[in-house]
Amino acid sequence: MPTVRDILKELEKPGRDPRPEFKAAHFAEGVEDIKDLREGMVLEGVVSNVAAFGAFVDIGVHQDGLIHISALSDTFVKDPRDVVKAGDIVKVKVLEVDVPRKRIALTRRLDDVPGQSTSRPGARDARGPANGPAPGQGARRDNGNPRGPARGGQGGNGRPGTSAAPANNALAEAFARAKRS
């Protein structure tokens, strides 16, 4: 806490501002709209908000980008507030730009490749021979019955070949992309 003497001492130096230097982010030239963004661009931005699932960063376009909690650091992050706070200047890479939905996916891990999953090797969702079968590839538990296990009258509509409506979510889209490649 500054004392009166400290304040007077600083005021004796005319033309000098005693406050620490203010740092501001330098937004990229030519990037003024979400349509100007390209995957793989490395930009500087300012953290505008921190939420439980990640941090929002102002990168100079109208819409803030999101750094998901899994892309904040190379190590495990339990709480994003442990890594960044509002007002921090960060360097980020653009992972994905969804113009119709006005969403920008960012990462602080500059070695991440756009268009790939943000998970690391050995992560929970990595599937392989050592981690067990992929979804839908496990051992059958229905005793060979093509209509599934006997349920003794529990639920179902009784019609073979029918199922619930397809799940239209990010996980379903990721599986569809993986299936195509």
Automatic annotation (TrEMBL):
Molecular function GO labels: mRNA binding; structural constituent of ribosome
Gene: yhgF_1
Occurrences of domain S1 motif (ranges): 40-109
Span list, region Disordered: 108-181
Transmembrane feature ranges: none
GO biological process: translation
PROSITE patterns: S1 (PS50126)
Protein name: Protein YhgF
One GO cellular component, as annotated: cytosol
Stretches with biased composition (Low complexity): 128-138, 160-175
Biased composition (Gly residues): 150-159
Superkingdom classification of source: Bacteria
InterPro entries xrefs: HHH_9, NA-bd_OB-fold, Ribos_protein_bS1-like, S1_domain, S1_Tex
